[in-house]
Amino acid sequence: MGDSNRLPISFMLDHRAPNFRPRFIVGRLNRLRRGVPCLLLILGVGRGLGIYEPEGLAGIPPWRIAEWAVSGLALLWMLIGVRALPSNRKLFRPSFRITIPLMIATVALIAGIALGIHGDKLRWPFHRPDSIQTPSIWVNAVFPVLAFSFQQEIWQRALLQSALSRLWGNRWLGLASTAVLISSLQPSGQQGFALCSAVLLGVVFIRTRSVLSTTAVSLTVGLPLGMLQGGPLASEGLLARGDFLLMKPPLLLGLLSLAVAVELWYRRSPRLLQSIKAVARTLLLMAFAYALYKLTAILLAPLWQAVIGRGEWMKESAVVRMALLVSAAVPVMALAWLRRGPSLRELLALWPVASLGLVGVAAWIPAIAAAIAIPDAFRVGAFTSLSPLTANPRAWLGAALPLVVAALQEELVHRALVQSLLSRLFRSEWVGLVLGALHFAAFHPLESAVFVLPGGLLFGLVFMRTRSIVCTTLLHLTLNIATHLLHTAESMRSLFLSPDNSDAKRIAVGGLILVLTAAFEGVWRWSAHRRGPAGLPNERAAPASLAP
């Protein structure tokens, strides 16, 4: 009796048996076989005509620009005819719905950056070159600029980007490879601008499929920049070279933002529009909080200067910390009053069990880290205070007050303000925690990042769970005092470690803080589980800082 699962011999000998080769790999190889010759032809012809060689517009004769434009159109027509490139009826049909708003936004972006950064350094009036002083000659000089931008879009977008998109089978990979290729052909000082402008024009080409639209946007970017730095249409730029270079970073960021805005416009949906509105409201809240912070600092500056001038028992550093504390407290209270941040009741909650437990453990972290990392240098019992601290009680207050004020000020800024706003912006408590910790570490010396960053994560996690700056301030103050007890501080001598050995324990301190962070989260989840399946505190409902 034969096996019913065995295939007949006729099936195995049939030449029409199924092809078991992976179709994905075969399809990609066929795509490369068809696309590589087209790409090499475009690059070879463009290289032969000198199109991809970086050269200023002033040194190119008009007949050569016309030759490039005609050659690009002829090559495009030929490749479409042999079906090496897809046919596109919208290629020479502008999309006014996106082109005109984008042109206005581009001009507003460049003008805003120039006026915002160098508004007092613009050299007015605008000077045209002597060779084009009359309006008719000046208008005629614009046409080479138009033709140059048009042929660039033919070669870079209609030919190169289309070929790379068809080669990879993905228009976004085609955009990325085109932008990288174009920027790599530019001089070192212009690669960043070439990359960002290629991304913007590539996104516009993907969405409009029109080289006329990309040409209009390219002119809108190039002409104002030419007026600012000087060029064929301006004998002297409105900005000096050094001032113009200072506005390049925000300009590049603005071009990328415009590219993102164009893509979001085409992908808009009710949910996306709602998310954009929420982000916009959060950004306005951030601007409002920052403006209130700066306004408070400006209005109270004379008061703090008077306190510093008296100089009785508070040092200037303590007064500066006090000023920062008051400036940070005002926007925190304003956001709490507007119900766009943690309430004052949450911020001032004591949480005695969590606070005492964390403080009791954190007080031993620096000593344990020193005993583990450098046991030979750890000298217990070497505490020696300076004589003023034992003779004058006000000196104790002067030594302790800066530590308390510094800890409270940092918790107000980094936890109650920055972490809350970032959590609201990204609609995620964990993202706000991580970014807030990075923001906290950025305000400390780089060599301290190995334990400051874990400390920021610990403080952020405690704040996320308790919403209390009282708890985080006590924890922060405990770690600061315990750390000062192990090495030389401003108000006391070297107690347990010499200054040379104080840096050796930093890695151990950071590791122990991470262990405490994980232990606190584990205990918090365990206690929440014992109370019932209602969910973790501050996770059962969206807090005020995440409310739309």
Automatic annotation (TrEMBL):
The chain crosses the membrane at residues 35-53, 65-86, 98-117, 137-155, 215-234, 246-266, 278-306, 318-338, 350-374, 448-464, 469-487, 507-524. The keyword Ion transport does not apply. The keyword Transmembrane applies. Pfam families: Rce1-like. GO terms for biological process: CAAX-box protein maturation. GO terms for molecular function: endopeptidase activity. It comes from the Bacteria. Residues 395-481 form the CAAX prenyl protease 2/Lysostaphin resistance protein A-like domain. Keywords: Membrane, Transmembrane, Transmembrane helix. This is CAAX prenyl protease 2/Lysostaphin resistance protein A-like domain-containing protein. It comes from Roseateles chitinivorans. The lineage of its organism: Bacteria, Pseudomonadati, Pseudomonadota, Betaproteobacteria, Burkholderiales.
